[in-house]
Amino acid sequence: MYEFGEFRLDEAERLLSRRGVTVPLTPKAFDLLLALVDQPGRLLDKETLLSTLWPDSFVEENNLADNIFKLRRVLGDGENGRRFIETVPKRGYRFVADVRAVAPLTAQGPELAPQVVAEPPRQAEAREGQVPLPATNTRRLVTVPWLVAAAMTLLVVALWIGQIRRGTPDPPRLLKASLLPPEDASFGDIALSPDGKWLAFTAATGSRVQLWLRSLAHDKAIPVESTDGASHPFWSPDSRVVGFFASGKLKKVELGGGLPVPLCRASAGTGGTWNREGVILFTVLGVPQILRVSASGGTPEVVLHADPGQTDLHEPFFLPDGRRFLYLAISGGKKNAGGIHVGSLDGKLRQRVLDHDSNAIFVAGDPNDRHRGYLLFGREGGLMALAFDSDGLHTSGEAEPIAARLGTVQGANLSYRRRNFTAADNGLLIYDPHIDRQRSQLLWVDRHGTPLHVLAQLDNVGVPVLSPDESRIVVARKDLATNNNDLWLTDPLGDNPAKFTFDPGSDLLGIWSPDGQRIVWTSTRNGSFDLYEKEVSSQGTDTPLLRSEQPKFPLDWSRDGRFLLYRQIGPQTNHDIFVLPTSGQRKPSPYLQTAAMENGGAFSPNANWIAYSSDESGLVEVYVESFPTHGGKRQISLAGGSGPRWRADGKELYYYSFDGTLMAVSVAGGGASLTTGTPTVLFPFRPASATSGPTYAVTRNGERFLLSAIVETDPKAPLSIVQNWTAGLSTTARYR
């Protein structure tokens, strides 16, 4: 490993970083830089460099010159008097900056004692906060090793040597530690590489969420460039590429550097998995299908549709044969419809394995027999292990807790929270032991984001909507005990919350009628996301408003009461915006139905315009277009946006920007023509949902905002790390 200037070059991991941030390099540019840095001050002739970079090919000197040019541009060679690479005319190149060789962090003897603790086999639960590992500090040249994997391995070797000397080998022991998040950040989704050497995770710094990478042989976590809004990371089988979801797309990024590469549209991903044949399976919120796409990109194809009574599918995970996979099915209220299932790439296999509402993974119990091992999943607030034969698809023994407390991560919206754990076949397990790490909460702020009031009695909430007279709020709330969602009503201060829906299906996304007398929402009680309505003041029944096979989600109700706007997910065009007349034949018709993903429709106060988001440009942006006829279309957001809302007088429009801020845009006109200003920043916040709609409401005068925001109750809480976790299982829980 080398350091020069503000840069660090890691040969083992093939990473170049600057101040802790990964600098993208092509493989040849990296090899060239390594060759130069390895011999600082020495002239390397062109022939030597050409034979080093292209040993088996004849390549013209222009290729070498082109890579030198790329390196100089990346390093900022020549800027502010800095010099790194010197050209020796007609001969070659020399690296002229000071280079410091940095020894890779290693675990040596007594230093390990306070870092990792070995425990007897039956002490399966790690003590929270027991062994905190150092947080990121890019200023240190040599740091206290956190070296989890290497340290644990060395301890195991030491124990094994001791056993050989005694002549009586003992079973592997549990080794436990804690991992602190990067400085000023908090952990989100986590994913171990298949070889157990890297941890990919999302982390929030303020309102900004990014993908990070951390080698388990070093103490430094590195944020990955251009990954804002990342979620649900997963790995390629060779542990060299990370897949993830961001900006309405499925993307991948190489471990060695480079910018993320979009693979396909994926409006709100809820999990992905990758097999050795280059097939990626993934799921999207609100789309009850398992989708497949090539690892090189392309058009997604449907592998498996949800069964009747299932409203959503999440978290696919390939089994060792690369043909069959685990997935989680969400029930719309039908008995025995949900749970952990196994499917196959040919779509012929649909087998229910467990009746648990949790994401699940398979971990091999023996490196020599990867088809027998354990299912890991969440149950009753903890992490469970159950012996499983992935060939015969049958379980054995009893499920046993391996962690008493297991945290969750808010998914793409309120209807889904994933259990936060990950494991590799080398015996390494990482999980979040903090159940209350984050929650969604309602709070009032002013135009500067200054907190005014917290609605403390309501948490785990979704999209808030103010009644037209601003006297009441309707919001969906998740019961973490039952994992069910219902609508609640409350006053603006949140002092008297009252449940509005009581069905065992999920009830979400309530909107008010213009007179404030009725509420329309979406419910899964009939096996799909259908629209229902109910009088607010009465104890009447929930009345079906619109039923069909396609999932539907209400967006807005025109002020004159004539039209209801809703989002529909179709099999061909994905997310579209439809209009439902509230009188006459009440026949719905599409307003926007294209190959792009449209969402977040909102009527202007006079109902002459609709603001919405679309990814037609390749990035989700906010647009305004006339209604009921199309015309006057214009883009409102500048660098990504979603969730538009209008001020009551129509003179201002708001939206959420992907950089984590709420934006405001001035609006003039509004009749036959419309003029919009330049977006301005109001304040940053982290929304509880990235896809369900605008997770904020605004008062009629635009002076106060009601936010449904993610609140970090303990942002510095560490993750728990366990090596040889199977050593803690009882005999009856082991696979046979």
From TrEMBL:
InterPro entries: 6-blade_b-propeller_TolB-like, OmpR/PhoB-type_DNA-bd, Sig_transdc_resp-reg_C-effctor, WD40, WH-like_DNA-bd_sf. GO terms for biological process: phosphorelay signal transduction system; regulation of DNA-templated transcription. Residues 1-97 bind DNA. One of its GO terms (molecular function) is DNA binding. Gene3D superfamilies: TolB, C-terminal domain (2.120.10.30), Winged helix-like DNA-binding domain superfamily/Winged helix DNA-binding domain (1.10.10.10). The keyword Transcription regulation does not apply. Keywords: DNA-binding, Membrane, Transmembrane, Transmembrane helix. Residues 1-97 form the OmpR/PhoB-type domain. The chain crosses the membrane at residues 141-162. It comes from the Bacteria. The keyword Repeat does not apply. Belongs to the TolB family. This is Transcriptional regulator HilA. The gene is hilA_3.
